[in-house]
Amino acid sequence: MKLATVGMVQTLTRRVDKLPMPDVLFVDEAHHALANSYRRIIDNFPNAIKLLFTATPYRMSGQGFEEVADDLIVGKSVNWLIDHGNLAPVDYYAPKQIDSRLLKTKRTGEFTESSIAKAVKPKIYGNAVKNYQLLAKGMQAIAYTYNVSSAEKLAEAFNNAGITAKAVSGKTPRKERDDIIEKYRDGKIQIVTNAELFTEGLDLPNVDCVIMLRPTQSLSLFLQFGMRAMNPRKGKTAIIIDHVGNVERFGLPTDDRMWTLNGSEKSKRQQKGEVIKSVTVCSQCFATFYRKGNICPFCGAELVTDKKIEVVENAKLEKISSKRKELAQKIIDDHAVMNISDKTPGELTTMTELRAYAKLHGYKKGWIYYQAKNKGLIRH
């Protein structure tokens, strides 16, 4: 009987000269196959049939996979998998909390940690908690942050709001990390905030919500983030809350993508998430979708006309229930309050901001009227 050898890349790399010659070599997470550790194993067995598996055949460098593969077989699309019950449908919200103009890239193409730290303001942690409570209250969630400190600050913000949360990172001792994961699986922990973990090789079927506080230039990482919440369960709709504008770079996780073995400039642009249709983010409820009309399908708000967006077909909109409208209005009001909490009356520029400021400070409606009139927001 022929046996199989199973091992981590790091382990097999050290033992590669002692391994028996395989007939077939299976490589998981094969988007890493061009890394030196993977190549050492692959190149050591030139006569073996090689089958490489990955959800994202993409590298940030734009380098192709021709050196390690002869052909690319693309599986079913994400939307097909959703339609057939293999993945959960997803609602994507993008209440962006950072100034992307502050983000700088390093040689690898990823954003520098120092520039992310400048773009991420302290209020993002409290806002992330409030948006979770509005959009995904009660769901178990994984939050992706950009370093250990941000993971700890976010966990602290959730705990202060009475929501059980733990922070984990590569610095968390293995025993403590395993204990946190076990308690999360058992439902004893509501939120796990993490830095540089939970992207590959971990099965967490009870994740229903993903919270993004880490901007990235990596399509692979973005899809690993977002699809972590899409494990199927009857009646489930996953929630993704993107506070850092990743959807602006990559589109939605459900997009059909042009995967290729080639590393051409064209494939670089395609794989970095350029999509044919523009993603629309509703300015009222922050739902994210591909536009098919002038009404937000989530909250019913009228969308601002954008000449760059081509309306593919006239959407037949279903009547939005009063409960959904109430939720949408609560999202609008609460988000407005968050955004004006550190402003002065002179910095307020819209009726929504004036109403939120009045609500926050207990002012009467007359104050809103006179402020709006002085700012030219009311013409009569």
From TrEMBL:
Keyword RNA-binding: no
Keywords: ATP-binding, Helicase, Hydrolase, Nucleotide-binding
Signal sequence, renumbered to the chain: none
Domain Helicase C-terminal: 128-284
Transmembrane segments: none
Native source organism of the sequence: Lentilactobacillus kosonis
SMART domains in UniProt: HELICc (SM00490)
Record protein name field: DNA helicase, phage-associated
